Structure formats: C-alpha cells, structure tokens
Amino acid sequence: MNTADLMLQKLNNRKHNYSLDREFYIDPDFYKIDLETIWYRDWIFAGHDIEIPEPGNFLTLQIGEYSVMVVRDNNGEFKAYHNTCRHRGSKICLTDKGTGAGKLVCPYHQWTYNMEDGKLVYARGMTPEFNKSEHGLKPVHVEARAGYIWVCIAEEPPDFKEFGALFENYFGPHDLRNTKVAMESTIIENGNWKLVWENNRECYHCRANHPELILTFPEDPAATGVEGMTPDSPMAKHWEYCESLGLPSKFHISEDGQYRFNRTFLLPGAQSYTMDGQPACRMPLNPRATKDIGSMLLFHYPTSWNHGLVDQGVSFRVLPLSPTQTQLTTRWLVHKDAVLGEDYTINRLSEVWIATNNADRRIIQDNAAGIMSPAYKPGPYSVEQESGCIQFVDWYSDTMKTRLGSSKSAAKLRVA
Fold first, then answer.
1. Per-residue pLDDT band at 414 (split at 50, 70, 90)
2. Residue 355 to residues 174, 348, 358: CA-CA distances in angstroms?
3. What domains can you pick out in the chain, each with its CATH number?
4. What secondary structure does DSSP assign to 43-91, as a single string?
5. The whole model's pTM is what?
6. Is the confidence at residue 291, as pLDDT, over 80?
C-alpha cells in the first residue's frame, strides 16, 4: 500500500474526537504528503506590508522545499516570485528582509529581473540565440489585506475573495497598515506542525504552564474553542458592546473550518497581554479601540493565528521545517508614531508572549518525544476543554480525505 492510501485508511478509521496516529506526527512520507496536499495548495501568511514599505523592499519565506520572495515593485504593488534564478538556480534574495535597487539581481552571475513582472532583462555573455523572454522568474500568487500579505504557490490558488473581505472587515478597524514592527522573534519548535496547532487550539494546559498569559487571557474554552454562544453569555455581551463601537466582533467560522474570526473578552480590568493587564503602548492603534475591546482573534490553517488589541497587534506565523520541526515567528505591532522608551518598551510589550512561546516550545518538544515512542496510541480529547483541537484535527482530516480521495490528487501524490 502506498503512503497516500495508507493515510486515507488511517484517517477513515480514526476514532471520533481522538488524536491522530503516530505516523502523522513523525513519518517523513506523511510529512511530504502534508506539504503537497496542504502547504503547497493553500494561502500562507508571508508577513506584514509595513515590513516592505518602499519600492525595492523584499521579504522571503520558506514553504517546505520552496523559497518565496515577496517584493514591493517600483509602482508600490506587491509581487511574489519563486526565489530561484532561472540561470542555475541560485537564490536571488539571500536574507529574510532587504532592499534592492529597483531590480532583482542574482548575486551569483548577476542575471537581472524586473520586479513588476519578473521578466529577465539582463544576462551577460549569452549567445545571440538566447531568448530572455523564456527565462523570467516563476510567479507566486499574492494578496494583501488590512496590513497582511498572503501567498500561494499552487498553480490555481483557492478563492481568496471571501476571506479577504472578512479580514478587512474584522481587522481593518485596528488600522494595522499604520503600525510598525516593534519586535520580531523566531523560534524552532521540535515537533510536527500539527502538534504546534493542537497546542495552540486549547487552554486546557494554560493553568499549569502559562502563569503569565492567564493573568489576562481567559481559560474559558469559548476563547479558544468553537462553541456557539448563548445570548446572555459573557462572550455574546462582549460582542454586542464591541459592535456598538463599530468593531465587527461576532464569531465567524468558514464553512470548511479553515479560518475563524472571534473577538474575545479579557479578564476583568485587563486591556492587553501584559503582566498587569494595562496597555503596553500608550498610543492606541485606532481611536475606536477603547480600553474594553478585548482581543480580535483569527486563526487560519495551516499558517497563522493573530491577536488585535487596543494597543498592539500580535501575529504568529507557522512554517514546517521537517516532520519533527516547525518554525514559529511572532511579530508585535505598535502605532507607527509610538516612540520606544516613551510610549512603549520592548520587554513590557513582549514578555507575556515570549514566556508563553518558550513554555509552548518545551511542551511541544515533550509531546513530540512521547509520540516518538512505539507505545503511543491516539488518545481522546476533552470535549469540554479541547473543542479547538477537535475542530483543527477534523479540518485536517476532512481536507486530506477530500484532496487525497480525488483521482487526480491520488495519482499526483503517490510516494514510493
């Protein structure tokens, strides 16, 4: 039985509300099919538009085997290309972020490309028969909404229109286009990307592991889960209040479960994720963002979860590195005019999530180490406390079964 068929068999036989079989978290062939079936076909969060504010700026990211560069071209538009020279394959942009000179120049042999369309415009020493028009950069689909940039390396990307409109609606009021990245942190978590997501989708573990976070973030499963709200619940009342301020807040989850928007309340008296609950930055992101708005939450599988607060935005980007390693990049955004040392300090802004990320890194490593044992068997989730985990694993299972089950995918994704 080939790997794709084995995955389908295991997914079809998975117990309801149980975790996945061991192979899904450690097996290289299962990981390769994850990449081909999800990561190479869905929209991936690349970064924030404020990270490449001027023409000639670029950022890069690694999506499985593919290096991608996102540029702001000379017209101020965002374009994305595979970061592979059409000469002998060298990477063109060698750093996470940088500034070009209006062209994309390969550092190896100086083949030069337009930013606007990826066309090859200079290739020294080639024969007269050489056709530059046949050697342009390979494009990548790119979309920008409300301060975020998304890319998709599939030939035919999923429709972005509905998600993009919702993203503008929910995150637009936080005015993240008029922010700056106050701090960025990248860590490597020694576990499969799905373990990173399962850990994120519940706060069942928070009391024992995140004393900093639960000073402000509610352990209420409604904050991380996907339960419906009764009209008189604290969450429903919070939505009603925030929407009266012009801040879209009510729970919205996509039909396929891939993304969810939901504004959650913080604990009484808390306005932001800080040790005392008070704002980390004195300049609000938006005048409508009063002190009691809580946090605007978004998850988008497989790549990002996010928080929009009165004083800051916090984005998290997940990228797979191997069957048992995942990269997590966290960015803290503050108002573009906020002054370091006067309006905010890096420690106060980031200390809660730095501590939380470090604890989660240990948790995920320990979780992965236990799953490495042949004694591991899938276990049951707590329906009360881990509905977010159930929802994520159901989304993963349903997505994989649908895509692997088609004859076209099965033929394409066979692994010896």
1. very low
2. 25, 12, 5
3. 44-152 (2.102.10.10), 161-372 (3.90.380.10)
4. -EEEEEGGGS-STTEEEEEEETTEEEEEEE-TTS-EEEEES--TTT---
5. 0.94
6. no
